[in-house]
Amino acid sequence: MGFITSKKYDGVQLYHKSNNDISYYIRYKDEHNKLKRIKIGDKSKGITEPFCNQKRNEILNKIRLGEELPIKHKKVKQFTLQNAYDEYIKWAMNNKSSWKNNDEAIYNKHLKDSLGSRALKSLKPNDFEQLKQEKLNYGYKERTVVLILGIARHTINYAINNELIKDYANPIANGRVKMPKIDNEKVGFLSKEQVKELLDILEERKEPMIYRLTILLLFTGARFSEVASLTWNDINLNENLIYFKATKNGNARSIKMTSKVIDIINELSQEITSNLILPSSNGKQILQMPKQWQTIVDELVPNNKTLDKHRITTHSLRHTHASWLAISGMNILEIKEQLGHKKLDMTLRYSHLIPSNRHNKTEKVFSGV
Question: What is the DSSP letter of 312?
Fold first, then answer.
């Protein structure tokens, strides 16, 4: 579609863009009687027909009075969400081990095309409310949507805190966008029979890396990033303890090594090529569980591919560890310490699995009174 002249204002033209936005232009004859057309801006940036008319009249008045017109304006480059992300990801690459499979993957898939080209200051809470609803309506899980909004919030906070943009409040912060509620009351976990079958399959298929990762994740209850970043300095063979450092999401803690974990550590001690316990083939930190693991689990667990909230994934090994502890009777505060949770709310999801002896205890305390 070409230019359309405004019905209300002479010399104001509209151009309808393919993304349903409208670009506004003004036309006038300069001091040499040459026809000029200048773009004023887009409707999405707040430009209106009356504003364009005002700008055109200002220029015409200067021409009539013989005043010098300003040198042709250079288009001010808008600071976009993409610009903010480009700076943020530079920081993340040096400070976050999960930047590639978390920040970068989520931004590129869910934010880049929809909001990346938008001027940062044009983004309002409603833009992210709409994004949230679109993702939920499309079938994405609440946890995924929280991660998407989280990456956007971190990106914008980085731009604000580092003064890449001024006089702008984060539209996602301070409750301006309500985060989807994640149901943490129950979690998916493997039974002991399923774990035994999984480990047997991994041994049969000769997948030593996946087998070792599975053992370490399951029997320590640690997050994948925590296991992947373990170094030999974190291993205490004298007391059979593994030390996990404090992270942004977890407290520091020591975990007792069970016999299977000790066996894996002893095997790995014969193959040291790096200070990392389990380095990749090029000696660097592993970023994610190999895809074969999920394929095997989907074959092992009935209907696992179709499960929504409780599908068994790599992170379910951590849930399995905690669930088994709860079933065994370990109290909620001990489980919290074992998992390195910073807040008790995260641990309470396992409380329904802890056997309740309160009736017997109540009867014992008050008997004979």
Answer: -
